[in-house]
Write a sequence for this structure.
């Protein structure tokens, strides 16, 4: 009798630019419909909060579950906020989150990474959302900090995804590539003519990660980035 393999966990990452589309209109509902169209189990968002004042959520909190079927994870430390340093995670309500780790990052700009420990059908998993700095020197220091912090946690299969802000496919991410498999889905920025591979995925050798094409882009785009999508399974035991 055959045993069905665990269903892959579908992950997505999307820099939503606080809901500002390529037509320079802020339309949170348009962003939420785009997120729903990804059909993901967990979505990592960047720029999920406004940058000024109290940095409120760029998405109407009450409509997130209604329009996407996903629930925000408790990441924000501010009333009215959705994320931490703009990074938010939306997950299927059936996913069990056992812990959340906030990782402050060095650099000239305030930056942070968020790691969520998930108990999913493929098995225990750590999903790390990032939005690295604009300067390569900052990105290198930030990658060092992320690896140091992850190494200090209890070990579990890990996938890192988000806006790495690195234009080159050969330089700048060596600190990560020496320890993780780095996947570059292709150009994701700018949304109208995606040339720069800013959004990427990195994973440890305990995981199989298969890139998936996101849904056909609509015009105007909900953001200046395009989303990335992948299916994740655990490597079979030896």
């Amino acid at each position: 009798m055959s045993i069905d393999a665990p269903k892959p966990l579908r992950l997505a990452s999307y820099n939503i630019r606080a809901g500002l589309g390529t037509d320079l209109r802020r339309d949170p509902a348009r962003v939420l419909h785009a997120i729903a169209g990804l059909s993901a189990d967990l979505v990592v968002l960047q720029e999920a909060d406004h940058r000024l004042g109290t940095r409120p959520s760029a998405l109407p909190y009450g409509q997130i579950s209604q329009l996407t079927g996903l629930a925000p994870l408790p990441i924000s430390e501010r009333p009215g906020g959705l994320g931490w340093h703009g990074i938010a995670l939306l997950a299927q309500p059936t996913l069990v989150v056992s812990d959340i780790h906030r990782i402050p990052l060095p650099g000239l700009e305030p930056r942070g990474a968020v790691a969520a420990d998930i108990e999913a059908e493929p098995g225990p998993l750590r999903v790390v959302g990032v939005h690295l700095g604009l300067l390569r020197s900052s990105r290198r220091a930030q990658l060092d900090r992320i690896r140091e912090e992850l190494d200090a946690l209890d070990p579990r299969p890990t996938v890192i995804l988000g806006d790495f802000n690195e234009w080159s496919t050969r330089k700048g991410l060596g600190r990560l590539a020496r320890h993780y498999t780095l996947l570059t889905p292709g150009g994701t920025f700018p949304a109208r003519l995606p040339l720069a591979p800013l959004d990427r995925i990195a994973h440890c050798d305990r995981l199989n990660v298969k890139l998936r094409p996101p849904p056909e882009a609509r015009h105007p785009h909900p953001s200046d980035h395009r989303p990335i999508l992948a299916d994740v399974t655990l490597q079979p035991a030896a």
User: Anything to note?
Assistant: The chain has a mean pLDDT of 93. The chain has one domain: 9-234. Residues 136-152 form the longest helix (17 residues).
